Automatic annotation (TrEMBL):
Subcellular location: Cytoplasm, Cytosol; Peroxisome matrix
Primary location class: cytoplasm
Catalytic activity: D-aspartate + O2 + H2O = oxaloacetate + H2O2 + NH4(+); D-glutamate + O2 + H2O = 2-oxoglutarate + H2O2 + NH4(+)
Similarity section: Belongs to the DAMOX/DASOX family.
Reported function: Selectively catalyzes the oxidative deamination of acidic amino acids. Suppresses the level of D-aspartate in the brain, an amino acid that can act as an agonist for glutamate receptors. Protects the organism from the toxicity of D-amino acids. May also function in the intestine.
A GO biological-process term: D-amino acid catabolic process
The protein's required cofactors: FAD
Keyword line: Cytoplasm, FAD, Flavoprotein, Oxidoreductase, Peroxisome
Domain of life: Eukaryota
Protein name stated in the entry: D-aspartate oxidase
Binding site residues for D-dopa: 233, 288
Length: 351
């Protein structure tokens, strides 16, 4: 926090547009508006909650590894996110923000390469499961027990949006075909368009990994269970239990597949037979914005001799909730650099 531009005293309020109102757009906009006082923040997006990928997510804080990002960096993002949400969890905001702790097990059919993942000392009470605990899962040979945080995703997105509006930020529903449309009206653009970046920027490194989940009513389930293969999980939340899932690379379909729903339900019931009694089963589909590394980068767009500074923050794949606060902080730092460059060039022009 505290990215206050050195030149802020003499500068006019800079106008910052954030494209995207999923988790990444809203959390980045929130970080910018909290840490850079001399600016106005506007969020522009085609879709808002409850219609984003971020609304479909389970919202668990269990990191997924980005192959193209150094582990120390991923750990820092995770720690910053965990600490931020843990503080909310321990405040009067917890219920509005939809944040809570949840304990459970990650279980493996074979001993994993990494018995001690890089995030093991960030979550709470990480330990190997006992023989006694493993008896509940006869197909599995090894397991990890820990307590982590979970977001009720639509509540958290609404809470972020409310905070933004409370800080004086504007929000607009609009599809952007070309970031240059924002030139002239805004000084800096922050691109948080998730999978939309493929079309918006022509970035072919980002691709969808389709995820289908079931949201069910089963309030007696209060321990999470995740198969280490990443395909089957049971995540109890405030309003429902999320049962997953699927990971279908390059599949753009939003239509629920009944065969996948049955398969997900059967896999989850095999781990937690009481789920046979689950009620009010709803199917949701989301496209994870997958990329080898999250793109956190400055770019200067140039047309007809005019410039538009852009900060990219997209490509969070399966792990957006786990790292969002850390990547928002880094994006805000890059925005601070763009502001300093703009102030530098405007004071030179005055000489
Ligand atoms: C089934 C499933 C379960 C998941 N579970 C977890 C989990 O437990 N833990 C975890 O950490 N992560 C999880 N994830 C991953 C997480 O959901 C994503 O990493 C995260 O939601 C990405 O957020 P985003 O803001 O980048 O994308 P989105 O939520 O897709 O938001 C993108 C925004 O950009 C806007 N946009 C795009 N293009 C344009 C355009 N041209 N003009 C204007 N606006 C545009 C969209 O309208 C939207 O507002 C899960 C994902 C799925 C699908
Ligand atoms: O893998 C998980 O535990 C949940 C998740 O992040 C996803 O489905 O993308």
């Amino acid at each position: 926090m505290g990215i206050v531009n050195k030149c802020s005293k003499q500068m006019a309020k800079r106008r910052i547009a954030v494209v995207g109102a999923g988790l990444i757009g809203l959390s980045t906009a929130a970080y910018i508006s909290e840490s850079i006082p001399k600016c106005s923040v506007t969020v522009i997006a085609e879709k808002f909650t409850p219609n984003t990928t971020s609304d479909v997510a389970a919202g668990m804080l269990i990191p997924h590894t980005y192959q193209g990002t150094p582990i120390y960096q991923q750990k820092q993002w995770f720690r910053e996110t965990f600490d931020y949400l843990f503080a909310i969890n321990n405040s009067s905001e917890a219920s509005d923000a939809g944040i809570h702790l949840v304990s459970g097990w990650q279980i493996f059919k074979t001993i994993p390469d990494e018995v001690l993942p890089f995030w093991s000392d960030v979550v709470l009470g990480f330990r190997s499961m006992t023989e006694e605990e493993l008896k509940k899962f006869p197909q599995h040979k090894f397991g990890q027990a820990f307590t982590t945080l979970k977001c009720d995703c639509p509540s958290y997105l609404l809470w972020l949006e409310k905070r933004l509006k409370g800080n004086g930020s504007q929000v607009y529903i609009r599809r952007i075909e070309d970031l240059w449309e924002l030139h002239g009206k805004y000084d800096i653009v922050v691109n948080c368009s998730g999978i939309g970046s493929r079309e918006l920027l022509g970035d072919l490194e980002i691709y969808p990994v389709r995820g289908q989940v079931l949201k069910v009513h089963a309030p007696w389930v209060n321990h999470f269970i995740r198969d280490g293969d990443g395909l089957t999980y049971i995540y109890p939340g405030i309003h429902n239990v999320t049962l997953g899932g699927t990971r279908q690379k390059d599949n753009w379909s939003f239509s629920p597949d009944p065969n996948s729903s049955k398969d997900i339900f059967d896999r989850c019931c095999a781990l937690e037979p009481s789920l046979q009694r689950a009620q009010d089963i709803k199917v949701r589909v989301g496209l994870r914005p997958a990329r080898l590394a999250v793109r956190l980068q400055k770019e200067i767009l140039v047309r007809d001799g005019k410039q538009l500074p852009v900060v990219h923050n997209y490509g969070h794949g399966s792990g957006g909730f786990s790292v969002h606060r850390g990547t928002a902080k880094e994006a805000a730092r890059l925005v601070g650099e763009c502001l300093a460059a703009l102030e530098g060039s405007s004071s030179k022009a005055k000489l």
